[in-house]
């Protein structure tokens, strides 16, 4: 379903699965990440209860690939109905079709989250389709590679618009429907707490602003019965694979910063963390940032 005209260029809603710029991330084809001893079953979601989110509706932005796709599949495995949101119809339709082929209930919505009118239309369309909104996952983010002197004002503005501003806009639009038990999970990045010399300043600023919004909303909306948390993920993606093929030595060196010695899987590693934060098992957790990154955030 189209809420806003799709675009043909690289979509803001489909941020790299690591939630960090491509130049800073290794690929899943690095030796350590592909070893049988270190890599889990990529489709294993055995840790997810099929009833953890039964009867609830989730909106997931940036859901056409990577972490957004993985979280969408995991939420569905937990029993949620899923609105798969992105700017590229082919990718989000593929994710929705995959969910439905597994016995889930999903609809794809093409939406530019930087457009306020499109966001309002998305909320209305989700309510029309499913009748409620119980979970919001904000994953959309446009990359902004380059040092502070290399990027221009347009790139910096796009990073803020697609990240924290879109996150704020979606949280506000969904707020009335999340009261009395709803949950929000915002995707941050370790780039906000770990400096990288290759140039991630604008991206890091945008992602750290998302965490500030998370903590603020958690406090302001606690009285409304809404929990708000953040995840700092590290997972495999096509972008990472391409980077490792281009510079395998740098990819292998990067992997050494991950204590567990491998990259996460979007569905099997990041997805269950999102399910947990959205479920009643986390009912006393709000304003928290959960690093799901193999321990990398601890290595400063």
TrEMBL record:
Residues 1-53 are annotated as: Disordered. Keywords: Oxidoreductase. InterPro entries: KR_dom (IPR057326), NAD(P)-bd_dom_sf (IPR036291), Sc_DH/Rdtase_CS (IPR020904), SDR_fam (IPR002347). Residues 1-38 have a biased composition (Low complexity). The keyword Oxidoreductase applies. Residues 56-249 form the Ketoreductase domain. It comes from the Bacteria. One of its GO terms (molecular function) is oxidoreductase activity. PROSITE patterns: ADH_SHORT (PS00061). Belongs to the short-chain dehydrogenases/reductases (SDR) family. This is SDR family oxidoreductase.
